[in-house]
Amino acid sequence: MEISYFVAMSLDGFIAEEDGGIDWLSMVAMGDEDYGYNAFYAGVELIILGRLTYEQALTFPEWPYSGKRTIVMSRGGRVKPSPDIEISRESPEQLAVRLAGEGVKKAWMVGGGKLAGAFRQAGLLNDFVISIIPALLGAGIPLSPGGGRLEPLTLLDVERFRSGLVQLHYKLPAAGG
Amino acid sequence: MEISYFVAMSLDGFIAEEDGGIDWLSMVAMGDEDYGYNAFYAGVELIILGRLTYEQALTFPEWPYSGKRTIVMSRGGRVKPSPDIEISRESPEQLAVRLAGEGVKKAWMVGGGKLAGAFRQAGLLNDFVISIIPALLGAGIPLSPGGGRLEPLTLLDVERFRSGLVQLHYKLPAAGG
Asked: Cβ distance A28 to A161 under 8 Å?
């Protein structure tokens, strides 16, 4: 199973300002340019969210993952039920094993950063689409939330956009490969 | 005057491990490939170092900036004298004004990170050559040492190398431009 991390970050590795703000991303907004998002989203069968990211999504005018199977992971926290989601109390490993058994081929780890970090440390994030915004942010919420280990990646693709955004696509090398 | 920052970082924005270690950079070592270093170095008239980076360079088997004018900046610390260097007690702004007056066209801010951050916050770093190593490091010394402000950059160039290293070249947009 492929679990993808599709995220934009500043050149200095921050995915949001310290308060979670992402207004600075608007600097690459250009008409119809979606930086591959719609194609990526269409290829994803399932969304994985942490509890806080889910609660943030609930504040949006409409549910952003409509029609897409969505799993909210929380080991112990109270998760507001909704017909749009399934709640999982599993570990990342348990969830990955179960979903692979159900035949899921491609999931999107939306975040937040802590959940993504737990998946990464378990070696379960294996596809990375990182859009580098042409800006230094100086401080903020880092792509890697600390800890972890050295994880060599294989570069698949580099795409340069007119706005100055550069999208890098990596995969985790196959275990033992 | 152009002051360049030429540095390698992990995809998650770290230029070294927490103890300063850079052994992981060897993953992109490939025969004669120098990732543009020699051409860059040849174009630089002058090297700017912080005190700790200078002390580290003194431990190398040979002085790494031989024949190149080198300035070690330290506001108050004791700097070991050497015929290879000039010592500056100036602020980044004072140094930049003085060097521009002397006709210097291109300098390399080698670092460390704190000195580079001070130059960046003063708007004096205006050329960025960032080599992205195909790896997540998880933790370490960040490219941006915290603080600072949003700094939009202009992408000049993207170069992809066989090792999976991607080199991104940005400049600071001209003030008011």
From this structure: yes
